[in-house]
Write a structure and sequence with these properties.
The complex is a heterodimer of chains A (299) and B (340). Chain A has 299 residues and is an alpha/beta fold. Chain A folds into two domains: 143 residues, 3-Layer(aba) Sandwich (Rossmann fold), CATH 3.40.50.720; 140 residues, Dihydrodipicolinate Reductase, domain 2, CATH 3.30.360.
Chain lengths: 299, 340
């Protein structure tokens, strides 16, 4: 059996903690370090209990161990501001970085759409866009793979309880980043993103709606087939990703109604928005690890 | 109820909330004609642009006949005394839209959020205040929170820099006691310098009565629209409210007869359908559903051969909030499946 690739997780919040649980199950990566800034955070304590090495000294607490512990990949789930500094230091140590913050230093990565291209290009840093982006851009790409899309719009509705203080403080970041990735990754000529927080109890599952306007009359059969194929690709790493309704065709409009249930690892199942981020990041790391293993880079 | 000598600031919604009832198709000419007439009649504030606020143009909510920029550019220079306001819903519009509106000379920015989610408005309220604008925190679907919890959210907006807080009855669900308890709690709990407003919908035919209660309980600003042009059964009919409070001895800046003439001669002829309490709008008020879902639900009902009131009741059961227009077609499709 090939040796697993050693990884570090930076940021011991909800996302980082959920990622540790997923990474511990992986056949391709081995979570070795968890980096936080608060010794008593739930994330660091859980990581320690799970057998990971931990530091509350931020990125500098990790750097000295990168070579000795053969860390090849790091997930960064801190903040855009902190990520910029982390990235420079990790790059100096030859670590490939998977960025779950809104920093977007590297190119956007939506695994079923462009991960292979990023692997071929040996990108030192990729950015995981947003939860709404991970849930919807595969569908927009599936449509634009059939025919030109003049306009792509997504509406992401998440349970209030699953929106953390970071998201709330800078909600514009979501709309801007997602709209930009709808264009650059989904290949819609113009992108628009809307996010709605719903306080209902019990909390609702993440819902995502995609509306595309195709340039010419939509080829219904080809688009439907392309969307269904894409959904299967996403389901390979997000089992709770479901088509609820559609595709609906109405003139040049194509609408797809989706629901995302999480795996319920660290976060409840309704928080599909957080789960699809961690699942996409894990998928990215695993593909990267497989490439490293095949090229012998892990030795 | 004694409103003798009370000063009430009126805020007309025809050209923003009314956009919902017009599928966002109000022309520049109509907007200029109506806003200049409202200005001339003495209405202090006039809200304009897309029904879902700045950046609302979308497949989900509908594309307006013109861009937000075009409406602002056409209306603002024409105003003699009235101040123009815009609505901004974080999650739909961004601070970029806010800066744009400021550059066109907008006076008031109303930053709207579902009443439980005030903390998404921090950056927008901050910026609006920094730009020196009249800054309002607009708590939508206020019926969904008890008065004390609503006050907590209002205080967040106040702490970000809002100089006015609105209790917004987006679903036209509130009864007079609901309004009284919320406005009184806001008045007692917020700084005396912070103004309070009430935005009603007429779905239970209580627009005027609720607005009177709001003023009696301490509100300074009242939203309404001439002839009620707004989502659902419309907003509080402003010419009616103005006539009532004038008779009660309160003071508004608007002329009773001029406002009546605007409603009758300009707004009613603009309507694509009568705006009144009918079965669907009554369902909105009864079930507590966001008023602007109305026309979307009627369109989906027609397209899929299901009853619009069934769609609306289901949206109420799902506890949908403002912005979730995408769920209307989804619900209609589910109802079609259930019929098979």
């Amino acid at each position: 059996m090939t040796k697993k690739v050693n990884v570090a997780l930076i940021g011991s919040g909800n996302i980082g903690t959920d990622l540790v649980i997923k990474a511990l199950r992986s056949q391709y990566i081995n979570p070795v370090w968890m980096v936080g800034i608060d010794e008593n955070s739930d994330g660091l304590m859980r990581a320690k209990a799970a057998g990971l090495k931990t530091t509350a000294g931020g990125i500098d607490g990790l750097l000295a161990h990168i070579a000795a512990d053969n860390i090849k990949i790091a997930f960064d789930a801190t903040s855009a501001y902190v990520h910029a500094e982390n990235n420079t230091k990790l790059a100096d140590h030859g670590v490939t970085v998977i960025d779950l913050t809104p920093a977007a230093i590297g190119p956007f990565c939506v695994p079923p759409v462009n991960l292979e291209a990023h692997l071929e290009a040996d990108e030192p840093n990729v950015n995981m866009v947003t939860c709404g982006g991970q849930a919807t851009i595969p569908i927009i790409a599936a449509i634009s793979q059939v025919q030109p899309v003049a306009y792509g719009e997504i509406v992401a509705t998440i349970a209030s309880k699953s929106a953390g203080p970071g998201t709330r403080k800078n909600i514009d970041e979501f709309t801007r980043t997602t709209a930009s990735a709808i264009e650059s990754v989904g290949k819609a000529k113009k992108g628009k993103a809307i996010i709605v927080l719903n306080p209902a109890e019990p909390p609702l599952m993440m819902r995502d709606t995609v509306h595309c306007l195709t340039e010419d009359e939509p080829d219904q059969a080809a688009i439907t087939q392309s969307i269904l194929r894409m959904i299967e690709k996403v389901q390979a790493y997000v089992p709770g990703y479901r088509l609820k309704n559609g595709p609906v065709f109405d003139g040049n409009r194509v609408s797809v109604f989706l629901e995302v249930a999480g795996l319920g690892d660290y976060l409840p199942t309704y928080a599909g928005n957080l789960d699809i981020m961690t699942a996409s990041a894990l998928r990215t790391a695993e593909m990267l690890a497989q490439k490293m293993q095949s090229t012998g880079e892990t030795k | 109820m004694n409103l003798q000598g009370r000063k009430i600031q009126l805020h007309d919604m025809c050209l923003r909330d009314g956009m919902h009832a017009k599928r966002h198709q109000i022309s520049i000419d109509e907007m200029v004609r109506l806003s200049t007439a409202l200005d001339e009649a003495g209405v202090e504030r006039i809200e304009i642009a897309h029904g879902d606020g700045l950046g609302g143009a979308s497949v989900n909510y509908g594309f307006a006949a013109h861009t937000d920029e075009e409406y602002l550019q056409a209306v603002i220079p024409k105003m003699k005394q009235a101040k123009v306001s815009v609505l901004l819903l974080p999650g739909i519009g961004t601070v970029d839209h806010l800066r744009m509106a400021h550059s066109y000379g907008v006076h008031t920015v109303r930053v709207a959020a579902q009443c439980t989610e005030a903390d998404v408005t921090e950056q927008h309220i901050n910026l609006s205040r920094q730009l020196g604008l009249d800054t309002v925190g607009f708590l939508m679907m206020s019926h969904m929170l008890e008065p004390k919890a609503l006050l907590k959210q209002a205080k967040l907006m106040e702490s970000y820099g809002a100089n006015c807080i609105y209790c917004t009855d987006s679903a036209g669900y509130m009864l007079q006691d609901d309004v009284r308890s919320r406005i009184e709690t806001l008045r007692e709990g917020l700084s005396p310098d912070t103004e309070i407003g009430f935005h009603g919908h007429h779905n239970m035919a209580l627009g005027v009565a609720n607005s009177l209660t709001a003023v009696a309980s301490g509100a300074d600003r009242i939203d309404g629209s001439a002839a009620g042009l707004g989502a659902g059964a419309g907003n509080t009919p402003l010419e009616v409210f103005n006539a009532v409070v004038t008779r009660m001895g309160a003071k508004t800046n608007a002329n009773v007869f001029k406002l009546m003439a605007i409603a009758e001669e300009i707004v009613v002829p603009m309507m694509d359908q009568p705006i009144r309490v009918d079965r669907d709008s009554l369902v909105l008020g009864y079930a507590g559903v966001y008023s602007s879902f109305l026309l979307h639900a009627q369109r989906a009902a027609k397209k899929y051969g299901v009853a619009s009131e069934d769609i609306l009741m289901e949206l109420g059961r799902m506890k949908t909030v403002g912005g979730q227009e995408d769920m209307i077609e989804d619900v209609a499709l589910n109802l079609t499946k259930a019929m098979k």
